[in-house]
Design a protein that fits this description.
With 342 residues, the protein is α/β, with parallel strands linked by helices. It has helices spanning 16-28, 40-47, 72-78, 83-93, 106-117, 154-172, 193-204, 231-256, 260-268, 270-280, 306-321, 324-333, and strands spanning 3-7, 33-38, 57-61, 97-102, 127-129, 131-133, 140-144, 178-182, 209-214, 226-228, 288-291, 296-299. It folds into 2 domains: 1-123 and 292-342, Isopropylmalate Dehydrogenase (3-Layer(aba) Sandwich); 130-282, Isopropylmalate Dehydrogenase (3-Layer(aba) Sandwich), CATH 3.40.718.
């Protein structure tokens, strides 16, 4: 049976919310087991509060924890007994282990995936890829990269487009995903030096449904399925979207509470607002996939609660069942990617 490896001590709310999310996940679906990695004594004590199939949750002891304050590369090399390092060891060596989920340090997760697990053959750089809701009901957009690679080369973005295409096909059943290149204008000549270099690469690749440049304001329109960009620009874009959404929801709440009339109107629209908040809440979407590693790695939000962790774990299960890694391997086996020794 497939195993999902979970970093029980990664994240702001670890280990309580991580453990609770793991239990919710095994109680929600069958056909997979969970391996919780971290301080065994603490995990066992917390699990006493829950009812679940004991055979489906395994505990692997790891006494150290890598925090957000530590330099990722140094921490990965020095803290061999950390929950993160032990988890990657299991993921690499156990054939039944198909995915790893962590809400811990983003830098440490990405460094660990690269150093401990390794890249798929042909992938120049792995990329962090979240799923973001759009204006079109039931449709999402992928953005990659959003922080794994601040500085990129043209071939890296070309690889991101290939990985985004395959992910979109596997996860959402889109046969020919539309791919846009994030820029400061839609005209072909817009963008910085990197955009000018990668644009003709994407356009010349007949395997890609490349629609050209796009602006940040179009990301949530639903007009494209995959947004390709470097990790620096992508990180700014995704955090700007998150910040704008949070601000607008707060402003809307303030306006509704500003008078008796608006409060009455708010009551009439309460169900609509609840549905909207649910669509925009990252807790319901699960984490971002680190595409390009040899096995599935999902980085959940640092402030993940039990629901977020459950969603991230179940996302890992679904992507494993859909053979996402196999789809990526096949794509790069055709020679689209160009390996980079970095």
């Amino acid at each position: 049976m497939m195993k999902i490896i979970v970093d029980a001590f990664g994240g702001d709310n670890a280990p309580s919310e991580i453990i609770a999310g793991a239990v919710k996940a095994v109680n929600a679906e069958k056909d997979f087991n969970i391996v919780l990695v971290g301080n065994e004594d603490i995990i066992k004590e917390r699990l006493k509060d829950y009812t679940f199939d004991n055979a489906r949750i395994e505990i692997v002891d790891a006494k150290e924890v890598i925090t957000n304050d530590e330099e990722p590369t140094v921490a990965i090399r020095q803290k061999k007994d950390s929950s993160l390092c032990v988890a990657f060891k299991i993921l690499k060596e156990d054939d039944d282990a198909v995915a790893f989920v962590s809400a811990g340090s983003t830098g440490a997760v990405l460094v660990g995936a690269t150093l401990k697990l390794g890249r798929l053959p042909g992938v120049s750089r792995p990329a962090l890829c979240p799923v973001v809701p759009t204006l079109i009901e039931g449709k999402s957009v992928l953005i990659l990269d959003v922080g794994a690679n601040a500085d990129c080369k043209a071939n890296n973005l070309h690889d991101f487009a290939i990985m985004g295409r395959e992910y979109s096909k596997v996860a959402f059943g889109i046969k020919n995903p539309k791919i846009g290149l994030l820029s400061n204008g839609t005209e072909d000549k817009k963008g910085n030096a990197l955009n000018h270099e990668v644009f003709p690469l994407l356009k010349a690749d007949e395997s890609l449904n490349f629609i050209g440049n796009m602006e940040a304001r179009e990301i949530l329109s639903g007009d494209v399925d995959v947004v390709v960009t470097d990790g620096f620009s992508g990180n700014i874009a995704i955090k700007s979207i998150e910040g704008a959404i949070m601000t607008m929801l707060k402003m809307l709440k303030m306006e509704i509470n500003s008078s008796f009339k608006t409060k009455m109107g708010g009551l009439l629209l309460k169900n609509s607002f609840t549905r909207l908040r649910g669509k925009l809440d990252y807790n319901n979407a699960g984490g971002a996939v680190f595409l390009g590693a040899k096995k599935l790695v999902i980085k959940s939000h640092g402030s993940s609660n039990a629901d977020t962790m459950m969603a991230s774990i179940l996302k890992a299960v679904d992507l494993a069942k859909a053979d996402t890694i196999g789809a990526l391997e096949n794509a790069f086996a055709k020679g689209f990617g160009v390996e980079e020794n970095q």
